[in-house]
Amino acid sequence: MPVPDDHLRININTKNCDIPTDERTRLLTSLTPLADAVRDVPNPALRIEAIYHPESTQYHVEFKLTLPGRTLFTGDEAPYLDSALQCCVRKLRRRVEAYREHPDREVEAASERRNALDQNVVAPEAPDTGPLAQVVETGDYRAFRIALVGYEDWLRKRVGRLIQRDPQAQARVGTGLLIGDVVEEVYLNAFEQFTRRPIGVRLSDWLESLIEPSIRGLLRDPDLAEEASIARTVRETPMT
């Protein structure tokens, strides 16, 4: 599918409907100003959801634009799919304009630091090659963990935010669920899945995608928390 700008990744999903070729072309063309507005923003991604509700004969459309430290949402309902799509394009462009006029400098700085981490850690696009893949191949978890230690503070903050949004997880904090154990479980899962990770995804984005499954796993199986604690102890033991 052609896109207005390769820099802006666009993912379109539909349910109970299809976007005709002419409407899809018009949609992508109308997104060109939006793509231009985020051209200097690192790794912008736009997700479009279009759902047809036969009981109301209405189309519901949602746009989700992921930017550094901020996700912009908008949506619309209309009896015609093209009308809902174009309305969302206009509203999202206004949101982007406001975002650019009042950026969060602290969030941008954090994003730049994370981008620097991704660039400094040698993780080539091919999942089964490179220094990190080599230590995974030899089963050296400690070396893998040390190589990714720069992500730890960032991971802790992300874990804390996700736990705050999950009442079940929040209720278990301090009584069987520790942020440090969740972070370690993320690293353990990353170690196990490293050579099977998706191609073309930033290392930090991939690590972040492992947080929620790690929390769910620890909630389902308390024994995993003990294993994560043991792994953390092994990692922290000084080398002799």
Please write out the topology:
Layout: E1 9-15, H1 21-30, H2 32-37, E2 45-53, E3 58-67, E4 70-78, H3 81-101, H4 105-120, H5 131-137, H6 141-147, H7 152-164, H8 167-172, H9 179-193, H10 203-209, H11 211-220, H12 222-236
Parallel strand pairs: 1-2
Antiparallel strand pairs: 2-3, 3-4
Helix pairs in contact: 7-9, 9-11, 9-12, 11-12
Quick synopsis:
This protein has 2 domains: 95 residues, Ribosome hibernation promotion factor-like (Double Stranded RNA Binding Domain, 2-Layer Sandwich); 125 residues, no CATH class.
Note down, in words, how this protein is organized:
With 240 residues, this protein is an alpha+beta fold. It has two domains: 9-103, Double Stranded RNA Binding Domain, CATH 3.30.160; 112-236, no CATH class. Helix content is 55%, strand content 15%. The chain is built from twelve helices and four strands, in the order E-H-H-E-E-E-H-H-H-H-H-H-H-H-H-H. It has helices at 21-30, 32-37, 81-101, 105-120, 131-137, 141-147, 152-164, 167-172, 179-193, 203-209, 211-220, 222-236, and strands spanning 9-15, 45-53, 58-67, 70-78. A four-stranded mixed β-sheet has the order 1-2-3-4, covered by helices on one side. The termini are far apart. 22% of the residues are buried.
